[in-house]
Amino acid sequence: MAQVYFLCRAVRTVGLVLVYYVFSIGITFYNKWLMKGFHYPLFMTLLHLTIIFCLSTLTRSAMQCWTGKPRVMLNWTDYLTKVAPVAIATALDIGLSNWSFLFITISLYTMTKSSAVLFILFFSLVFKLEHPNPYLIVVVLLIASGLFMFTFKSTQFNLKGFIMVLLASFIGGIRWTLTQVLMQKAELGLQNPIDTMYHLQPLMFMGLFPLFLFNEGLSLSTSEKLFRVNELSPLLYTLVMLSIGGSLAFGLGFSEFLLVSKTSSLTLSIAGIFKEACTLLLAAGLMGDRMSGLNLMGFAVCVSGISLHVGLKTYYSKSKIHSLRQLPVKNSQDLEVPLLCHKEDEGEETAAADDDDDDKEQEILL
């Protein structure tokens, strides 16, 4: 029974990761392609946020009609104190990431974003979502040195774009750690990713809008791409292209939040290393990105660091489960541990209880 349960959990996690891969790789190449002719990444991000909010609103309405149950609606206190920090961090992470495409290649962007696992790990320790471990020092050194080797003497290196992505990775560490805390608080009722996206988008828009006005407001208002068009067809083409990116962003946001809510923020980053390997290969084949032997070696070192962390998480997760199974059992049913139940008619209830406990403990099942 336990083997079947863990197998189902593993299959579910792999499926969620694959869906995330499709949207993440797709929007990365799409945004890079779009930035070649449309140099307003912050405006593009704001439009994406608007599309995501509209799609999430329609989805919530459809779900409410289908189930007959009202969707969660947070009060202003929880909205401004608990949702706002996540929204601001998410807006800056996405905005800076899209902005960097004006300056750097997909391969450099992908490799630099992989450093987000360091910041997620740091903030997970700060918020006590992860436990301190001396082996984490080795993991940090491997990932940091791998990133240094990948960017050292890179022929397509751009300092401005690199700083933007590195800052986005730092903010992303805050973003996903706070997202994990937000979605796993049962009293808020935001376990459904659609509800989370619906509540985040307005605050994300307001958080990014001042930066857009400062950097792109004047130039966009005088641009022939949107406000000074001479023909209708180029305007419609631009809006359609931006809308496609917004749809991909909705799918990516949904898959990211779903993956985090069912596993953890660290799972998202660790699983992402395999996605990044695919992205690097596609960038070299489709976009002509050049990487030296030292750059590839740096990528391998970074992969080894993240793989070490996966192994450590798996080991400690199994040790924790084993220690729970060794707990003494009292005769009283009130003190019975769910993992120690042996009654056949309680098997499904035990699996459901284990599922909830695993989500609260943020186990990594990769």
TrEMBL record:
Q: Name one GO cellular component term.
A: membrane
Q: Which residues form the Sugar phosphate transporter domain?
A: 15-308
Segment Disordered: which positions?
346-366
Q: Which keywords does UniProt give here?
A: Membrane, Transmembrane, Transmembrane helix
Domain of life of the native organism: Eukaryota
| Localization per record | Membrane
Per its record, how is this protein called by name? Sugar phosphate transporter domain-containing protein
The organism that produces this protein has a lineage beginning with:
Eukaryota, Metazoa, Chordata, Craniata, Vertebrata
What gene makes this protein?
Answer: slc35c2
